[in-house]
Specification:
The protein is of the alpha/beta class and 294 residues long. β4, α2 and β5 form a beta-alpha-beta unit.
Amino acid sequence: MCYPELTLIGIGEALWDILPDGKKIGGAPANFSYHVSQFGLNSLVISAVGHDKLGNEILSDFDGKLLNHHISKVEYPTGTVQVELDNEGVPYYDIRENVAWDNIPFTDSMKGLAQRAKAVCFGSLSQRNIVSRTTIHQFLDEMPDEGTYKIFDINLRQGFYTKEILCTSMQKCNILKINDEELIAVSRMFGYPGIDLKDKCWILLAKYNLKMLILTCGVNGSYVFTPGVVSFIETPKVIVADTVGAGDSFTASFIASILKGKSVEEAHRLAVNVSAYVCTQNGAMPQLPDYFIK
C-alpha cells in the first residue's frame, strides 16, 4: 500500500485491552497513531497480529477508524491484556507473552516507510522479544537523522525491560517521554538515586543529547525540558473514568503540534488538556472534540 505524505508512525504492540466493561483496542503505538490522525496528520501504526478472529477484528477496527496500518500476520496469537482498574481509575495490566506483536518482521516496505517518516514513537514493552526489538532498531536506523523526531515513550510494564534495552533506546531516540514513577526506577537502575526529579531530567537530557524530555507526574503536573528551558503546566482537575491511553494521547497531541509549527509551550498545553479529556472517557481511543483539533 502507498501512504502519501506520511508523517508520524507508532511501532510496536497492537492488542486488545480486556477492560471490566469489555474489550477495547489498545497498545501504545496504535493509541499514538490514532490520536495523531485526529489532528489531520498522516499517521500509521506498524505491528503484527495473528491468523485469528481477534487479529481480524483489530484490522477491521483500524479500517473503521481510517487509521493507516502496516500489520503483519504471523504464526502467533493476537495480543491481549487483562486490565483491572483501581478505585481512582488507574489501570493494572496483565500482559500475555509470546504473542504476535512480539514477533513483528522487518520488511522492505517498512524500510521505505522509515525513510519517509517525520516522527516515530516506540516503547520498551514492544522490545521485550528480540524479534520485534531488532525490527524497531532497524526502523530507527533507517530514518533520516536530520529533521525527524524519534520518541521513546519508555512505558515500563511488568518488568518487561532491561537496562540494556533502556540505554540503547535512549541512545537511538531524540525525545524521551517518561513519568515520575518510571524516572525513579530508571534512576535506581542507572545509579543516581536521591537526586531531585528535575535534576535527573537535566542529566538524561544532556547525557543522551536529547532535543526534549517530557516528564509527566500525574495529578502533580508535567514538564517539557529542552536544552536550557523548561515548561511546567499543572494537571487539570477532571472526573476520571480511566487513565488508559492518556499518556499516548499526550505524546500524540504534543508532537502533532510541534510538527504544525507550534511552540513547545503551546504544544505542551494542548497535550495536557487532551490527555485530561481522555481520562474522562472509557478506553484509549475516544474521539476528540472539535475544539481540540481546530
